[in-house]
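Predict the assembly for these two chains.
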Amino acid sequence: MKIMTCPVNGPRNISEFAWGGEIKPQPDPATCTDAEWTDHLFLEANTAGVVSEWWLHTPTNTWFVARRNTVTDEVLETMTADTFFSRRSDTLR
Amino acid sequence: MPFALLKYAARSALKGDHAADAHFHWTPDLKPAYDVVIIGAGGHGLAVAYYLATRHGITNIAVLDKGWLAGGNTARNTTIVRANYLTPEGVAFYKESVNLFRSLSNELDINVMYTERGHFTLAHTDAALNTARWRAEVNTHMGVASEVIGPDEIKRLCPTLNVSDDVHMPVLGALYHPPGAIARHDAVAWGYAKEAMRRGVEVHTQTAVNKILVENGRAIGVETNRGTIHAGRIVQAVAGSSSVVASMAGLKLPIRTIPLQACVSEPVKPILDQIVVSGSLHVYISQSARGEMVMGGATDAYGLYSTRSTLDFKESLMAHMLELFPFMGELKVLRQWAGMADMTPDFSPVMGLTPIENYFIDAGWGTWGFKATPVSGVRMAECVATGRQPDLLKPFALDRFRSFDLVGEKGAASVGH
């Protein structure tokens, strides 16, 4: 069984987690065009390589951020959303 | 009987000559320009080339693949062909595919071993039974044979299936689809390649596309590891790598790449003639012509560009498989693999025109690509030749996401997503 480390609950079997997809900046729904909004809803970068993405520890309903390589199937780092966004506040809204 | 077999029989009877013709005649040098360049030499890409040549008279075509012929998802599926989908759009599309499959051996002069086995989608809950009834109604309305049957009838048609109550989730009924079939996946691709090449199409393997040349919103060519090629029109049909290739053309797709695993058992004598699927248990199984049990389950729980296999998959698959077919406990798993599946939000493909002029896409196949090979070939060829989106492909156009006109094909995977 593959192990993933939840930043709150520690190392757990990966079957306890749900994948939330890549983190992407959300356009402002009040000012963006319809096309920008549908693109945000449906289009995916679907990166082959290192990505930052949402994961959920389902038994405790804890959302957090993982950095993962989608080619080698390695989890490189996990952190709370606070940590991630304070680190990257300059690049993501 | 396929003509190839008749010729073989006649030739060996008359002359004692047992040698068949070579499948392929490789074309070593790339030309500087082609009318159509197709990226991806899998079943879909080769079928597009074949139908462009036979139905539209376009033969100045290069099919490029970074690997080898039909070595991607064409070689990594579970070879099931069926038309019992849920949406009218999906049913109409696959009805045409089943019709094409039925005459494919004769058309391609190669035995694709298409055999109609009867396809059972088992229901273990009232909700699943209701969906089965819904699908049966849509299918019947569209002229596709489908009916809901009870456990006694299931047992009569498929005697090896365990329908007793003494299991975790007893079988309440099934959606029975008599035309459900299996085919030899490699032969389908080889047949298209052979017949396309006989008409002048070039297939270049070990030829990776590194860049797609776009000028003023128009695709004009590709840069490969063997030089630059100019192209009148470009088609991408690359299954799991769709997002990577599309991004070279500046396109972002509504696709996530997720592994779908499968495995086969050691070969045994014929014991299971049918194709049995359970959406609730995440299990599907059929027996190949070689006697192997071909088995699959659900997609992996997260996206990945890898064809690795996992122990979790086999454990969860076998736990349910042994309830349905207790005799499977005696069999060994012979080999296992994964395909990289393009998953779209509505479990339906993305086909046809793109915002880039002269750039056509055949992607988003998720878990239903092999059974669509002939119909995608025919309709994508029509789209490329005419420059218009064929009626059958209109529901699957890329721009449906802009208009919230999603297809919602919940009958797509036998096993849910």
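The mean pLDDT of chain B is 92. Residues 116-181+256-343 of chain B form a domain with the D-Amino Acid Oxidase; Chain A, domain 2 fold (CATH 3.30.9.10).
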